[in-house]
């Protein structure tokens, strides 16, 4: 029996933990009711609680514990579980108990990209199309060419960051958003990798489904260069998850022609 779950990475910041030392058990955002745990491979669960306390996690007959450090951080090394299990994931620390209901086990895949990956399972406020691939890669992995160096210079540019804030308030259609003046999609270079990919490295995934590219196909030259960015993205994700053979499903663009009103060839 194979059970699979897919989580979709949007473009808005994912807040994982409280900034101050937590007075109660705080969990990563991917831990919630109706979730799926990775099956067949060990994985980590991280969080916050009071310093120097014992945190225990139970799932059926499987149990694991960790002790919080001076700052209240804890990391639980959860053993591999079988596919097809169902139950509650229970976190306890002192007298506090947090119960995550309707938890199953199976294959977990990361699905990411632009509007093609917008699905009803994602929060509508966290799914906006029109991102370009530079937003999904760390700055140190940008190609060492003209466009790569340009994108890297924009990561902390005050004008770019201000344009993003303004676009959040006054949302405009693709091609009319404020970042277009720098040749950007709807996000700052490297920002979505830092906000929505890197924090999930503790979650063991079976593979990645990637569907993105329209925002990098406005010219033939740009489309040809996309192969450099995509190769670097695959390399960085495999490095992040510590799996040099992490499977990638790359969905090819349909007949796409940005010169037509609907973006498709007749």
Record the SSE blueprint.
Blueprint: E1 4-8, E2 36-38, E3 43-48, E4 54-59, E5 62-67, E6 73-78, E7 86-93, E8 96-113, H1 146-153, H2 158-169, H3 191-197, E9 207-211, H4 220-240, E10 248-250
Parallel strand pairs: 1-8, 2-8, 8-9, 9-10
Antiparallel strand pairs: 3-6, 4-5, 4-7, 7-8
Overview of this structure, please?
- This protein has 266 residues and is of the alpha/beta class.
- It has two domains: 15-106, Immunoglobulins (Immunoglobulin-like); 108-250, no CATH class.
- It is 18% helix and 25% strand.
- It has four helices and ten strands, in the order ββββββββαααβαβ.
- Strands 1, 2, 4, 5, 7, 8, 9 and 10 form an eight-stranded mixed beta sheet that branches.
- The longest helix has 21 residues, at 220-240.
- The radius of gyration is 20 Å and the shape is elongated.
- The chain starts with a strand and ends in a 16-residue tail after the last strand.
- The model is unreliable at 10-21 (pLDDT under 50).
Helix/strand order, N-terminal first: EEEEEEEEHHHEHE
Quickly count the domains: 2
By secondary-structure content and strand pairing, the structural class works out as alpha/beta
Shape: elongated
How large a portion of the residues is in β-strands, by DSSP E? 15-25%
Low-confidence stretches: 10-21
The DSSP helix count reads 4
Largest sheet: 8 strands, mixed
Helix content: 10-25%
The termini sit apart by 42 Å
Strand tally is: 10
Mean pLDDT, rounded to whole units? 82
Gyration radius, to the nearest Å? 20 Å
């Amino acid at each position: 029996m194979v059970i699979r779950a897919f989580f979709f990475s949007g473009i808005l910041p994912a807040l994982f933990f409280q900034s101050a030392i937590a007075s109660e058990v705080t969990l990563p955002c991917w831990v919630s009711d109706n979730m799926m745990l990775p099956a067949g491979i060990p994985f980590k669960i991280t969080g916050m609680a009071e310093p120097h306390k014992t945190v225990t996690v139970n799932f059926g007959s499987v149990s694991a514990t960790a002790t919080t450090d001076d700052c209240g951080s804890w990391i639980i090394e959860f053993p591999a579980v079988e596919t097809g299990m169902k139950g509650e994931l229970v976190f306890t620390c002192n007298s506090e108990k947090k119960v995550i209901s309707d938890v199953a086990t199976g294959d977990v895949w990361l699905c990411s990209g632009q509007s093609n990956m917008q699905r009803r399972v994602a929060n509508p406020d966290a799914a906006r199309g029109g991102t370009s691939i530079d937003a999904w890669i760390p700055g140190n992995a940008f190609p060492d060419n003209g466009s790569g160096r340009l994108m890297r210079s924009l990561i902390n540019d005050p004008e770019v960051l201000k344009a993003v804030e303004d676009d959040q308030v006054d949302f405009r259609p693709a091609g009319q958003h404020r970042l277009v003046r720098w040749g950007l999609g709807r996000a700052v270079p490297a920002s979505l990798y830092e906000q929505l990919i890197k924090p999930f490295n503790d979650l063991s995934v079976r593979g990645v489904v990637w569907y993105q590219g329209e925002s990098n196909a406005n010219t033939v030259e740009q489309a040809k260069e996309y192969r450099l960015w995509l190769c670097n993205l695959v390399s960085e994700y495999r490095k992040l998850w510590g799996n040099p053979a992490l499977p990638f499903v790359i969905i090819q663009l349909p007949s796409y022609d940005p010169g037509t009103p609907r973006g498709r060839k007749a």
